[in-house]
Amino acid sequence: MGLVALAIAGFTTACDVTELTPANLIPDSEAFSTAARIESAVLGVYESAQRGYYNNAVQRGYPFGAANVEQGDMRGEDMYNDQLFYEITYVGSYSPNSANNNGMWISLYRMINRLNIILENLDIAVADGVLTSEQGDNYKGEMLFLRALAHHELLVHFARPYSDDPSSLGIPYRTFGIDDVTKVPDGEAVGRTTVGEDYTQLLADLDAAESLLSEDDAFRANKGAAIALKSRVKLHMGDWAGVLTEYNKLTSMYALTANPATPFRGGNSSDNIFSFVNSAEANPGVNGALPSMYGNPDLGARGLVKISPIIWRSEFWHEEDTRRSALTTRSGTGIFTDKYQDATTYTDPNVILRFAEVVLNAAEANARTGKLAEAVTLLNSVRSRALPASVPAYTVAGLGNEDGVLTAIFNERRIEFLAEGRRWADIHRLSGEGRMSGVPAKATSRSITNIDFYTTDREIPMDHSIDYSSHLFVWPIPLAELQTNNTAPIQQNPGY
To answer: What pLDDT does residue 17 have?
Structure first.
């Protein structure tokens, strides 16, 4: 891994990203000599997830402080690019040198390297009496969960989907750390395995994490988070029975909130399973934070991304749905999400896993296995909480058949997870399966300049679709990765 040298220096640096106070900098040789220093090293991994690497800088929210949401949304059609800032991702003009996809690759592998170094030292710390066995196991579970989360993010951006061909090129799945330049050749020698092999390792990491983690709050990796991420991973694999197994584990631990806005108003809720913290002291900054990028400029935000009129005017989003009123604001130029509100100090957490996602995963798994009544019941549990009692719930008969039920579930995912970055992952897996033909046409970048595009039948200019067969459907491996890997250069995605 030619870029692995970027991950070696100062891996224990940490900031106040989980509302704890770690040391600012600890020499690597002493990082595991006390329990407090190990905690600081662990918090350094959360920091690298919240404020990683982007174009030789931090404070852009790579990979999980905000960027996973912004890049995931900009690869889809339901959130709209209003300025030049996200143009490359929105129109699909990325290259092996473009900053957004390179930032994702580098920041994810930096994070992975940090956590792998910690994993290799935890058993030693327990044996030396620095940590108890329980402490060591919980840290190990946290690191394994975060390793799986990072590798899955890489897979949905840089590899073809499991639903197409598990034997296609995956990504390098890194399971050991590099904390010295003498180890760089070993890292470089880890090549691209298959997508299927990567998913096998993902599940191994998550099974282990589940067995090690406790039920903690939503701002640290916890047992529920490992189970919920397995639900997501198994959905991408088409393992419908597995999706239902994971759902059933969580029904006594979490519940949907009656108010769809509650999961986005800070703190824990019954729907919040795992989030990355942002604080006034540590956040993705004005050029990356979700409330800055997505918020209404009339309310002090930059407002570079707004809701697309495509979904706002869709027939499947009911006019009386409270998610239209409680979770959006409008200006003269369009409609903005209100899921993220702090455009001053950027303290809105980035919600990664919610119980609502697990419920809709289970709804889809039921529909895929012929249990349509069960599927519609779960679908209605998400949808009906946002609708007045006067709006009838869905019925199997009303939706028609399995395809009708699945379409309603896919549409509900678009509404429920709007502005949460989940749209790209669905396009990825459904295109691989053949249910979608690639990235759908979007509202033409920087053309939606008036609220009329939302409130009237004014024609929406359309562009930027990407066929599934196009090389542009997946991101290129960074050119610097290929050029600086002297041991075993990995294979570039075809077409770049």
So the answer is: 46
Q: What are the structural domain ranges in the chain?
A: 2-263+352-444+466-472
Judge if pTM exceeds 0.90: yes
Q: For position 28, what pLDDT does the model report?
A: 64
**DSSP 8-state class, residue 24:** S
Taking the C-alpha atoms of residue 444 and residue 465, their distance in angstroms, rounded to an integer, is 10
Tell me the C-alpha distance between 257 and 272, whole Å. 9
Asked if residue 279 lies in contact with residue 19, where contact means CB atoms within 8 angstroms, the answer is: yes
CA nearest 304: which of 49, 66, 52?
66
Give the closest residue to 248 by CA, choosing from 167, 381, 355.
355
- The CA-to-CA distance between both ends of the chain, in Å, stands at 19
Q: What is the crossing angle of helices 223-237 and 423-433, to 10°?
A: 30
Separation between Cα atoms, residue 389 and residue 192, nearest integer Å: 52
Q: What mean pLDDT is predicted for residues 231-240?
A: 98
The predicted pLDDT at position 14 comes to: 39
% of residues, the chain, pLDDT over 90 = 88
Q: Grade residue 26 by pLDDT with cuts at 50, 70 and 90.
A: low
C-alpha distances in Å from residue 308, one per residue of 199, 291, 327, 438, 457: 33, 17, 14, 18, 14
8-state DSSP, 54: B
The candidate with the shortest Cα–Cα distance to 278, out of 341, 371, 336, 186, is 341
Q: What is the pLDDT of residues 239-261, one digit of tens each?
A: 999 999 999 999 999 999 999 99
Find the mean pLDDT for residues 292-298.
Answer: 98
In the chain, the amino acid numbered 275 is: S
Residue 56, by phi and psi: left (phi above 0), alpha (psi -120 to 50) or beta?
left
Return the DSSP state at 345.
Answer: T
Tell me, what DSSP letter sits at residue 28? G
Query: Cα angle vertex 82, ends 76, 85, to 5°?
Result: 85
**For residue 15, what pLDDT band results from cuts at 50, 70 and 90?**
very low
Pure H helices in 60-216: 67-74, 87-91, 99-127, 133-158, 184-188, 195-212
What's the CATH number for 2-263+352-444+466-472?
1.25.40.390
